[in-house]
Amino acid sequence: MTDSLNTGKHTEKPNIGSPNVPDTKDMPWKVIIADDDTDVHNITRMVLDDYRFEGRPLQFLSAYSGNETRELISAHPDTAIILLDVVMETDDSGLQVVRHIRRELQNHFVRIILRTGQPGKAPERDVIINYDINEYKEKTELTVQKLFTTITSALRAYRDLRIIEKNRNGLEQIIRSTGKLFEHQSLKTFAQGVLTQLISILRLDESAVYIQFSGFSAFKDNKDFLVLAGTGKYEYAVNKYVSEIFSAEVLNYLQMAVEKNRSIFIDDVYVGYFQTQSGKKHLLFLKNCQHLSKLDRDLVRIFSNNVAVAFDNLLLNKEIVDTHKEMLLRLGNVLENRSKETGKHAHRVSIFCYLLALKAGLSRDDADLLRLVAPMHDVGKVAIPDSVLFKPGPLTTEEFEQIKPHTTIGYEIFKNSDRKIMKAAAIVAQQHHEHWDGTGYPNGLRGEQIHIFGRITGLADVFDSLTHWRIYKDKWSSDKVVALIKDQRGLRFDPHLVDIFLRNVNEFIEINNRYPD
Description:
Oligomer: single chain
Helix content: 40-55%
Radius of gyration: 36 Å
Strand order of the largest sheet: 2-1-3-4-5
Strand content: 5-15%
Distance between the termini: 100 Å
Structural class: alpha/beta
Order of helices and strands: EHEHEHEHEHHEEHHEEEHHHHHHHHHHH
Number of helices: 19
Largest sheet: 5 strands, parallel
Number of strands: 10
């Protein structure tokens, strides 16, 4: 073998592939040798056989034409270097490959080292100006030492570009992840989201791709920690105390973070520490973190700071929601206590609405929202005189007109709030007496002009009212009420909701039986 890598052209072609691929745990740097000369492949492999950069070997992939090179780089976009011949099946095959990689594949990371034995066909000045390559070498000048230097320089550049890109991706992931965390409505789903997003961020590091992360999120309860969410081998630990299921070593790690009042990396463990403004302490525990780079650890710290802010915002939002729920519950109790004859009417209507909403395809969140506000459908009756509201027997036309404004009164109570719960309560209070055919009140809305919450509550209200005794009427049998609802399909009631109700009528009757007045 000579010191130069310049050889004559050969027609014999070995099998395409990478016969000397190291074990994947070594994370080799991928190098594509693109040349139609077999000896170039063999000599390049031989010269660089024991080469290592930052402890990682090279993995060689061979291509013998421009088309094969395009296929290889498409299949291996994480290639670090391409040693690319200019002249293969055509005089400009290599240049066309460069154009394909940079323009079509948009791969600006791979370092392209152009090698040519016929510089006259691709003058260096023209190639450097017109093509996005990183080195231009004539094969006669590419000695063993210069090849070693060129490869090392190219790998350094590739590594630095990847670090910059990972840093950018990591910060973008943190921004996106934190945004998603704010969407969660409970501590448990929030904690699970923290784990999911953090593991996603850590997987940006190629050295961690093969690591199986396991983690749990806990909060301090007296002298112990209650697990909120878990992944991997810790999935079973949710709702259990750390002292019951984990070793003293794990508990010591958690106590250490609490005592230091900060997040810590120690041994192969990461403990994220978050203290909210309300004084609650939340912890995040990850195992197998010994391979995390400094960049990954910095990303984790940035993410952890954002999580602490998210915790506070979540708790603040939860306090607002809980306040609204309690207010609605207490107001519902006032209504039922005022009218003893209605018993558990508001409670049953709430359950009917939740069931019907789910059956109608509403999300669980929307169904739960409707369940909360449904008891407010008759809140406007607080302004109706007792002489009308509790009159035995049928109402006169004039008395019925006195009842009708309760829908508008209820709407006025809630309408000025920007809160989702209050807006939903306003809709239910105003629209539960609107009819599908437009003959209802107060606004004579028709069809889908009536909000789905109003349509569901109207049907649930009628079913419950007619199947129970009232001061102005006797209790109807379930069969009689079902017959009326069927008869009012497309008139008073949404036909689609009536069909759902009829298919599931036994469930509604069972709720009636479960919660008698």
